[in-house]
Amino acid sequence: MLERWMMRSWSILMALASIFIFSAIMTFIVAKPTYSWDSVAYVAIALTWQGESDIAAHNGAYKIVLSETDDPGRILSPGNRWRELMQNDSRVFTAQMPFYSLKPLYPSLLSALGRAGVSIPTAMLIVRVLAYLLLLIATFYLLSEAIESQLETGLLSLLLLSMPAFLPILKWSGPDALSLSFVMIGTLFFIRNRHWPALLVFLIAILTRPDNAIFCVLVFCGGMYLHRDKLRENIIAVILIVTAYVITATYFGGYGWKTLMYHSFIEKVARPDLVEVSITVAQLVSVYVYHFLSMIRETYWTVFLCLWFIAFLLDVRASNTLGRNKVLLLIALANVIIHFVAFPEVHDRFYTPSYILIFVVFVDVVFSKRHACAIGVR
User: What is the 3-state secondary structure of the chain?
Assistant: First the structure.
């Protein structure tokens, strides 16, 4: 009787905690969204795809974002000559747009909702909420692979997404939360052996952020090992993902990796459409060293790396074979390494697919061990 009462009380407590956390995160997302200069660029692309001229899109984007933000200094950065140039010269501003149109799905959604009569800020809100709900559902079902209790799974999913590594992404008016949700839905299909739905969702994820191709290719390379009976399907998937990346980067972008690398990590280029850049070995070494040290200091990668080691060691103790969990952990680690080499970013939002995958495997290993211990006690 006492045990039943305690279980019921624990269930009620988890349900109340889940409702509270979900409500808090939704309020956090809706109440005060974060706008950055990148938000101006995405709004300008959406306005351009609605038929506005480059000048009208430039002026309209600044007007919309500045009217919505409580911190204009975050957008304008007074004293920052680069930001002032962007605001005052529509030609230079327009020349930066291929760096952002490279992620076409997000501005396409804003443009489509705008054509339907929805204001751009409201469209951003709709996309943010949709992305969070999709991500929460995907995380819930990924964790449910290891946890039988739906209440425990739901609470753990909410707690994971309320971590500081994820909250800024959910709040920001940009494509990253939407990108992460598609990547994790595709991962869920892959783990459940739904090959073609996983491929379809991953192709959508590439339209949201082309660099998702790194993670997606690694997943299907892992599939070549885990599902050797489906080798041909996994090879086809890798070819299609690489093709989708090339088409997206060529059609919607156009500047190439070298220009992106130079512009993002070495020196801003006002007219990348007119200037041919070059990168020296010394510059590359400097960029990688500086950003690697910054990544250790400024991101939560070290936290998840500790979880990675714990999960890997626990799984090794359970089995010496290279099973599913070890392959997923290697995918997560390889994604961070390759992504950093290709684009040495120091923001968590670029590595969150690996974070979630590491956490899912960690939970699977820990709960499997707990379940085994419970059986042993009985």
Answer: CHHHHHHHHHHHHHHHHHHHHHHHHHHHHHHCCECCHHHHHHHHHHHHHCCCCHHHHHHHHHHHHHHHCCCHHHHHCCCCHHHHHHHHCHHHHHHCCHHHHCCCHHHHHHHHHHHCCCCHHHHHHHHHHHHHHHHHHHHHHHHCCCCCCHHHHHHHHHHHHCCCCCHHHHHECCCHHHHHHHHHHHHHHHHCCCHHHHHHHHHHHHHHCCCHHHHHHHHHHHHHHHCHHHHHHHHHHHHHHHHHHHHHHHHHHCCHHHHHHHHHHCCCCCCCCCCCCCCCHHHHHHHHHHHHHHHHHHCCHHHHHHHHHHHHHHHHHHCCCCCHHHHHHHHHHHHHHHHHHHCCCCCHHHCHHHHHHHHHHHHHHHHHHHHHHHHHHC
